[in-house]
Every structure is written in structure tokens, then in C-alpha cells.
UniProtKB/TrEMBL annotation:
Family recorded in the similarity comment: Belongs to the EamA transporter family.
Pfam family, one: EamA
Organism: Gallionella capsiferriformans (strain ES-2) (Gallionella ferruginea capsiferriformans (strain ES-2))
Transmembrane segments: 21-43, 49-72, 84-103, 109-131, 138-155, 167-186, 198-216, 228-246, 258-277, 283-304
Key word Transmembrane helix present: yes
Location within or outside the cell: Membrane
Record domain EamA: where: 27-154, 170-298
Recorded topology in the membrane: Multi-pass membrane protein
Protein name, as recorded: EamA domain-containing protein
GO cellular component: membrane
SUPFAM superfamilies according to UniProt: Multidrug resistance efflux transporter EmrE (SSF103481)
């Protein structure tokens, strides 16, 4: 299976040149990749039980905020001084999470995820703009590989210029852009603690979800059964713990290297979508995936990195 070959290559690369100082950040990011490679499935189960994606997202992230309510005094203090960085993290992380859930609920898992993982291209741009990380000779190759992979996946001769074919694919692409921005902003916002960055993810996602639910007609949570509440609670606990781990990772690791480790999510999702959703990718999809994966693997070699600005 191609996913197993990718997994072997990832294991080799990720095991190279790690010491005690970056094992914990790497573990944090890998735990996030594991959870997000699987979390689309319980949201689909909830949708089949009558709980829409927006409603399930709002409930789980609100419950996560409840679990982390002890952090509110610190979060409030840091938000009041962080200014635009706090707002940028709220909006970018919020849409990355909400857009991802919506896209995975209604689209083909691997096509959506591969569009999401054009993120190395956006990471290059945002890292240059916000962190001052400049491309070395691999940079343009990464851009070419990512865009070529997307072109191959999306090309339909009858439709002309390739672009995402449905709303889910557009959501996946936009969520990937927001994901790249949120990781770069998280590293740039040195004035924010890991706790505040984590709470920002939950709050931002809930803030963006609530207006959509109101527009759709309200918050019909009263008809949710006990089994569905159990699933919602378990998702919330997973989100609460993994959000801490991921924010610790992206805070203590360069943005481009973090993106490399997030790539493990592709392997998890490929296996999960095959066994849980009976989805299979065609030859053209695998070829496009190979190019996007190659770009992500090279993204760990992109920069001569300056110190992160204070």
C-alpha cells in the first residue's frame, strides 16, 4: 500500500537528528496528527445521528473551553496586551479547525486532506512575511512540487483550468491556508503562553461556528441522546489534551519543520478512510499525493532561520 511506503519514509526522516530538546515538541505535533487523522470519523457518526457538523463542532469546542476554564485569568491578561496577534490566532486557528471539520464531513477524505496539505506553500509565504525566514535553493522546488500535485489531482480536461471541484475541496484548501497561518502566528506570538494559544484555538473555532448555526436556525441541542453526548464528551477531551500538545510543539519548533511532522496525518487518514469510509484513491490521486508529500518532506530544509522576533 502506498501509504505504508510513505509511513516508512516519514519514520526514517522524523527519527533523524532528534535529541532530548526537540522530542517533546515532535511528540506533541505527532499526537495532533494522529487525532486529526481520525477525528473526522466520530463527527460523521454524529452527523448520521442528526447532529450537524457546525453543531457538533460548537459543542465539542465549548466543552473543551469548559475543561480549560481554569486558564481564563491568564488568558484574559495576555489577550489584553497581545493585540493583533491574539486576534490573528483566534481567526486563523478557528477557521483551520472549523473548515477542516466541514470539509471532511462532506468530501472525500484524502482529496480534502491533500488539498489541506498544500500548507507548505502557504507556510513559506507566511514564514517569510511574519518570521523573516528566507527561502534557500529548495524553496521554489517545494512550491513547484505542491502546485504540480494539486494540478494533477484536480485536472479535468472538460473543465479547463484545474481548481477544487466542490465546496468541500474549497473548504479543505482554505482551512489549509488558515492552518499554515495559525502555526506561523503561534510561533511569532512569543508574548502568548502555550495555555493562551491553546485556549485561542477553542475560542476561535466556537466564535466562527456560532454565527453559522444561528443563521441556520438556532442551536437545537435538546434532542441529543446520551450516546451522542458521550461521543461529544470524548472528542472534547481529545481536543483539550491534543491542543496543548500541538501548541507546545509549534511554539518550540520552526514552522517549516512542524509542517513536516504534521504530514503523518496523511498516513493515518489514508488508512482510516480505506477501512472506515471505504474510500480508495485512483492512480492520478496517488501521483498528485506523492508530489505534495515530497514537497512537505522538503519543507524541513527550506530556510536559513533567523531568531524569532520578540
Amino acid at each position: 500500500m502506498p501509504a505504508l511506503k510513505i509511513s516508512g519514509r516519514l519514520a526514517t526522516i522524523m527519527a533523524f537528528n532528534y535529541n532530548k530538546n526537540n522530542l517533546l515538541p515532535a511528540f506533541g505535533i505527532l499526537s495532533g496528527a494522529l487525532v486529526w487523522g481520525l477525528i473526522w470519523y466520530p463527527y460523521r457518526v454524529l452527523q448520521d445521528a442528526g447532529i450537524s457538523g457546525p453543531l457538533g463542532t460548537l459543542i465539542t469546542y465549548t466543552l473543551a473551553m469548559g475543561l480549560g476554564a481554569f486558564m481564563l485569568p491568564r488568558v484574559w491578561r495576555e489577550f489584553s496586551t497581545a493585540g493583533w496577534w491574539a486576534l490573528g490566532l483566534l481567526l486563523s486557528a478557528g477557521w483551520a479547525n472549523f473548515g477542516y471539520v466541514l470539509a471532511m464531513l462532506h468530501g472525500e477524505v484524502m482529496r480534502v486532506l491533500l488539498l489541506f496539505y498544500l500548507a507548505p506553500v502557504w507556510t513559506i509565504l507566511f514564514s517569510f512575511w511574519l518570521l523573516g525566514e528566507r527561502l534557500n535553493r529548495y524553496g521554489y522546488l517545494v512550491i513547484a512540487l505542491s502546485m504540480s500535485g494539486a494540478f494533477i489531482m484536480l485536472w479535468e480536461p472538460a473543465l479547463g483550468i484545474p481548481y477544487p471541484q466542490n465546496v468541500s475541496e474549497w473548504l479543505g484548501l482554505s482551512a489549509g491556508i488558515s492552518f499554515a497561518l495559525s502555526n506561523v502566528v503561534s510561533r511569532r506570538a512569543t508574548c502568548l503562553s502555550v495555555e493562551t494559544k491553546t485556549f485561542s484555538i477553542w475560542l476561535g473555532t466556537a466564535m466562527l461556528t456560532a454565527p453559522l448555526l444561528v443563521w441556520q436556525g438556532g442551536l437545537p441541542a435538546q434532542g441529543i441522546g446520551g450516546e451522542s453526548w458521550l461521543i461529544l464528551g470524548l472528542i472534547s477531551i481529545a481536543l483539550c489534551s491534543v491542543s496543548f500538545a500541538v501548541q507546545y510543539g509549534v511554539t518550540h519548533m520552526p514552522a517549516n519543520r512542524a509542517m513536516l511532522l504534521f504530514l503523518f496525518e496523511l498516513v493515518i487518514a489514508a488508512v482510516a478512510s480505506y477501512f472506515l469510509a471505504n474510500e480508495a484513491m485512483g492512480l492520478r490521486d496517488w501521483l498528485g499525493a506523492a508530489l505534495i508529500v515530497s514537497a512537505s518532506l522538503l519543507s524541513g530544509k527550506l530556510y536559513v532561520e533567523p531568531e524569532v522576533k520578540a
